[in-house]
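Input sequence (240 aa), recorded before submission:
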Amino acid sequence: MLVTPKNTEISAVDQDLASVVGPTAHRLRPRRRRRSLEAARKQALNFTAVPPDPERRAPLWHRRVTHTKAVDPLVWLLGAHGGAGVSTLAQVLAPAGDCARSWPAVLEDESPFVVVVAKETIEGLTRAHDLLRQWHCGMAGKRAHLLGLITVAHSPGKIPPVVDRYLQVIEVAAPAVWRVGWRSDWPTTRIADLPVWTPDDEPPAKGPDPHAAVRELGDALISAARTAVYGAAADPEDTP
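Predicted structure, C-alpha cell format:
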C-alpha cells in the first residue's frame, strides 16, 4: 500500500523534481543523474496516493459515452488536455473511441478500459500525471480500468531531453506507456480521410504500410485489454 507523503503540496513535488527535469539536469554527472532520476521516480510513485486538485481532475460520465462509431469501442482514449491527439487516434484505431475528456461510467456493456493520451510537452505530461493520480486515488469512477498512457510526439525529431526525463519520472504511475511518433501527413490530412487500422489488418507485402504509425499500438492495446480480462498467462488463440 502506498503511503501518502506528509507534504501534499503539489508545488513541493515540482520543486523536488526540478533537479531531474530542469534545464540544468544534463550538467549532472551520469551516476548522480541516475540517482536523481531514481529518487524522483520513487517520489512520483508515492504521490500517486495524493489526489490532484479538483480543477485538474477529469469529470465522470453519468450515462453511456456518446460516440459516433458503429460498434462500441474496446478502449476509451482520455485526453489529458486539448490537442492531445485523441480525435486522430480514435479515427485511425478502429477499436478505440474518444471519451470526451471524461472517465466512462461503464454502464451496461460499455468497455471499462481507458488509456490517457497526452502530447510530449511538459504541460501535457503534467496534465497526464494529474489523471494518473486521479485514477490511483479512486476518483475515476468505480469501474474504469486504466490500461496505460499514450504519448504523442509534439514535433519532428527526438523527444526533447527535458520532456523525456519528465516522462521517465511520471511513467511509474502508468501500468504501461506507448508512444506515437511524429507523422508529417497527419497535420495535412483531414481526420476523416486518415486510414483506419483494424485488428484483422495485415501489413502490405510491398510498398509503404498506411498503418505503420499505429499498427503496433493497436496490437498492444488489444493485448493489454485481453490480459486485463484473462490474465497474463492467457493464450491469445484460446480467448474469444
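Checked by second reader. DSSP finds six helices and five strands in the chain.
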